[in-house]
Write a structure and sequence with these properties.
This protein is an alpha/beta fold. It has 14 helices and 19 strands. The strands form five sheets. It has a six-stranded parallel beta sheet, with helices on both faces. Strands 15-16-17-19-18 form a five-stranded mixed barrel. A three-stranded parallel beta sheet has the order 7-10-11. Helix 7 runs parallel beside helix 8, helix 9 packs parallel to helix 11 and helix 12 packs parallel to helix 14. The chain binds iron/sulfur cluster. The site of iron/sulfur cluster (SF4) has 10 residues, from helix 6.
Length: 430
């Protein structure tokens, strides 16, 4: 039988989809890129906002409409976070959560034999270890995501993720090393370490932290670049940053989640840092990493956010001078503390603030790109674009486009960056 997987959401979900893909292939199923032609369609869902949920609902309906005979599987964060509501809400044939990915094939076989709808969502248990999983390849040719952590203990007041993902669990250092060695043997030169709350890596093991994971990843020969996925400002102390900075393979690109630059808003969000503490981390990163890019997520219109609080947040974002900001308007998430707050911000104000934040942060992006001009940077090339230029990324994740007739994918070449072009820089191979 042929299967298709559609992934919604973050890099951790992309990694877990790859786990499912490899499990299905190992059991003799055949991969089919087009869900319309597949016998089994698996949707790996995200539930970070209500918008993510409605995307999954719409998608499930579309799959059933366009491929009515296929077996549909809904998995991922949405069923895990809302196990009680799903039976009524979804038209999927099999509904399962984030836990026990290894049960996927037995579930599918059970459905094939009995043709009865299956709902199997295993709850997270406190104290459970990291679910053993590793991949041998990825759908991108040059860069592989490697999940080294799952879960979060933070309970930010707007976030449902700790319910969907459970508490922090970390992959052992020896498993990280083994997985990266396998990826290097398959030809991957760049690894991105990802997690739900990556900065909390090692909390559950004790005595180790994210710097230990990076040191192990960087020690694998064949892997030439190591990147970190999204980080929380948790445990990013001066000593950790110093240890990271002596790893030459670690790319100077840090996505450090901010959410708000206003201390009062941060408090209501139940984020455990102040804007000044955040700034100290940024200063430390910049002190230790030459030409590093700091990117972030910012939420506008959180319950109770006044015009003044928004202005403070905006001023702080400008002060940091982020290389890129992902702005999003607060969206209510049933089951969270922020959803129960009475002082919800009007949609018009949220839209207005989003627009202002996006405009200002686009200028910051442009300044960052302009600051890259004239530099000669090693670029790991990935693929040819539709306009004929070849594209790749510098260590600080600046997208670079060059003109060449050669196929330079998966090659690391020095490029002089000459002009800003769209969201990246155009350059010449030197
Ligand atoms: S740190 Fe906060 S926002 Fe991030 S996953 Fe944990 S609870 Fe959610």
């Amino acid at each position: 039988m042929k299967f298709s997987i559609i992934t919604l959401g973050c890099k951790v979900n992309q990694y877990e989809s790859q786990i499912m893909r490899e499990t299905m292939l190992a059991e003799g199923f055949e991969h089919e890129p087009q869900y319309r032609n597949a016998d089994i369609v698996i949707v790996n869902s995200c539930t970070v906002t209500s918008v993510s949920d409605s995307k999954a609902f719409k998608l499930m309906r579309r799959i059933k409409r366009e491929n009515p005979d296929c077996i549909t599987v809904l998995t991922g964060c949405m069923p895990q976070a809302f196990p009680d509501e799903l039976e009524n809400l979804m038209s999927a044939d099999i509904i399962t959560g984030n836990k026990r990915r290894g049960d996927l094939v037995p579930l599918i076989n059970e459905y094939i034999n009995e043709r009865k709808r299956l709902v199997r969502i295993n709850p997270h248990e406190d104290g459970a270890g990291f679910e053993s999983m590793s991949i041998s390849g990825f759908n991108e040719r040059t860069r592989a995501f490697v999940k080294i952590e799952d879960g979060c203990n933070r309970f930010c007041s707007y976030c449902i993720i700790p319910y969907a993902r459970g508490r922090v669990r970390s992959k052992s250092l020896s498993d990280i090393e083994a997985e990266l060695k396998a990826l290097a043997n398959s030809g991957y030169r760049e690894a991105v370490l990802v997690g739900i709350n990556l900065s909390a890596y090692g909390n559950d093991i004790g005595g180790i932290n994210i710097a230990d994971a990076v040191e192990v990843a960087c020690s694998v020969s064949g892997i030439e670049r190591v990147r970190l996925g999204s980080l929380e400002p948790e445990r990013m102390d001066a000593e950790t940053i110093r240890r990271l900075s002596v790893q030459p393979k670690l790319c100077p690109q840090f996505h450090l989640s901010l959410q708000s630059g206003c201390d009062q808003t941060l408090k209501r969000m139940n984020r455990h840092y102040s804007s000044e503490e955040y700034m100290t981390i940024v200063d430390n990163l910049r002190k230790h990493f030459d030409n590093c890019s700091i990117t972030t997520d910012v939420m506008v219109g959180f319950p109770g956010e006044t015009e003044e609080e928004f202005s403070r947040s905006l001023e702080f974002v400008k002060r940091v001078g982020f290389a890129r900001v992902h702005t999003f308007a607060y969206s209510r998430r049933p089951g969270t503390a922020a959803d129960r707050a009475e002082n919800q911000v009007d949609k018009r104000d949220k839209d207005k603030r989003s627009k202002i934040m996006i405009e200002k942060t686009e200028k910051l992006r442009h300044s960052f790109l302009k600051a890259q001009l004239g530099r000669v940077e090693p670029v790991l090339f990935e693929a040819r674009r539709q306009d004929g230029l070849f594209e790749g990324y510098t260590k600080n994740y600046t997208q670079v486009y060059v003109k060449t007739d050669e196929d330079i994918s998966n090659r690391l070449l020095d490029v002089r960056l000459n002009e800003v072009m769209g969201q990246g820089c155009r350059g010449d191979i030197v």
